[in-house]
Write a structure and sequence with these properties.
Elements: E1 4-8, H1 12-24, E2 28-32, H2 35-44, E3 49-52, E4 55-56, E5 59-60, H3 62-69, E6 79-83, H4 88-96, E7 101-104, H5 109-134
Parallel strand pairs: 1-2, 1-3, 3-6, 6-7
Antiparallel strand pairs: 4-5
Bound molecules: manganese (II) ion.
Length: 135
């Protein structure tokens, strides 16, 4: 089964680039171009991971990460921040919101591949542990 990655990104060039790359990597990509569309996509097509832009027009993408962390059904889904902002205070804000890591724009796809594989592997390992402990 293909793993689904939700991309929440308001810049169409960036989201197209990410979609093409994700599909080449064998993922199913779902694009949301607004914060609202991001929330809707979480409800309708639960992803295995989220790539989250922080500046979504007037909205703060971290609203989505903070909200996900409070949802028992969604809090295990890794959220990777994809942003050009690299100031330390902003990095802290991103990590405190529940994002697993930050991938800087312009995206280094080798780094993104490593992070996605790592965090998706973590989720699988956790699920495996839960299954194992039940047996
Ligand atoms: Mn943006």
């Amino acid at each position: 089964m293909k793993r689904r990655v939700l991309v929440v990104e308001d810049n169409p060039l960036n989201s197209e680039l990410l979609r093409d790359w994700l599909e080449m990597e064998g993922y199913e990509a779902v694009i949301a171009s607004t914060l609202k569309a991001g929330f809707a996509a979480l409800e309708s097509k639960r992803p295995h991971a989220v790539l989250l832009d922080i500046q979504l027009g007037a909205d703060d993408g971290l609203t989505l990460a903070s909200w996900m962390r409070e949802q028992p059904a969604l809090c295990q889904i890794p959220v990777i921040a994809v942003t050009a902002q690299a100031m330390v205070s902003e990095q802290e804000r991103i990590v405190n919101s529940g994002c697993k890591c930050i991938v800087s724009k312009p995206v280094d796809f080798k780094v993104l591949r490593q992070q996605l594989e790592f965090w998706l592997g973590q989720v699988g390992a956790e699920a495996g542990k839960r299954v194992a402990s039940r047996e």
